Amino acid sequence: MRNLLRLVSVVLASAWLAGCLAPDIPYSQLEAKYGDAASQYVTLSSGVRMHYRDEGPPGAPAVVLVHGFAASLHAWEPWAQALKGDCRVVTLDLPGHGLTQAPSDYRSSSAANVAAVDELTRRLGVERFVLAGNSMGGAVAWSYALAHPERLNGLVLVNAAGWPSAERSEGGPAVFKLLSNPAGRVLLRNLDPRPLAARGLKQAYQDETLVTPALVDRYVELARAPGHRAILTRRAGGGAQVTPETFAGIRTPTLVMVGLKDQVIPAARSQAFASAIPGARLVTYPEAGHVPMEQIPEQSARDLRVFLQAVAAR
């Protein structure tokens, strides 16, 4: 009887897991739904086929926008709409995200993302620009400022990741807890990301009215692009050691923007960036969370424009 119960348990668990499995969605289907007339693609030297948008007057001052973990260039749509009348706005999908395709053995890292941003902008003839990044994209942005300061007119960190801290933030999205252990990474690589995505997005956006079914669909369906889950759950190789003193080496004019109700990355870490980067300006949003460019697009875009004007005046 005990063996029979064990067998029934295994069968039921297998059936439950099978019901939770989510197959890949072909790129052709995703491109038809999430690409648009502004979507363009370029194959980089790494073999990555990068999806990007290049909007606004070609000769205008350029702004390059880099999204966060599991997001896509769509996160910048409010800013792109606000800026592209008089700025050249380049948005992109990092490898493992959005509509960008990467080789099956691709290993994501901060250095690899910096290289992708550098190659894309050079291919587009964007020699100098303001670089903005949100969350993980913020870490890409400040890493780029350290690696290629000669190419930047300005740096914008929006609730940026990467501040060196031994303290683990409590209460963040469950996906990050699962990513921290091998068994969790295996689950994330195979199971339907929808339940975790819905909860995590509500934490990031704060205002649940912004977490529409269409928004959840976009995050979930793009995460199921072929190869994306493998890249997102593969542990990145170790990079150079970062300390608070590292940021004293950033000489690019810097704007740090932070939603003080961020439940993903503690707001204090953005404030630490502002203190560590020489001459950085800090703008805080008491009622915003992790993605102020989407939560309060008009106010955050207005503050960005003030910074861009100051950079131009320099």
Features:
about 45% helix, eight-stranded mixed sheet, globular, Rossmann fold
Structural summary, described in words:
- The chain is 43% helix and 15% strand.
- It is an alpha/beta fold and 314 residues long.
- α3 (77-83) crosses α13 (297-313).
- Residues 3-19 have low confidence and may be disordered.
Brief summary of the model shown:
The chain is α/β, with parallel strands linked by helices. It has helices spanning 2-20, 27-34, 77-83, 110-123, 136-147, 174-179, 182-190, 194-205, 213-223, 228-233, 267-276, 292-295, 297-313, and strands at residues 39-43, 49-55, 62-66, 88-92, 129-134, 152-158, 254-259, 281-285. The protein has a single domain (24-169, 238-313), classed as Rossmann fold (3-Layer(aba) Sandwich), CATH 3.40.50.
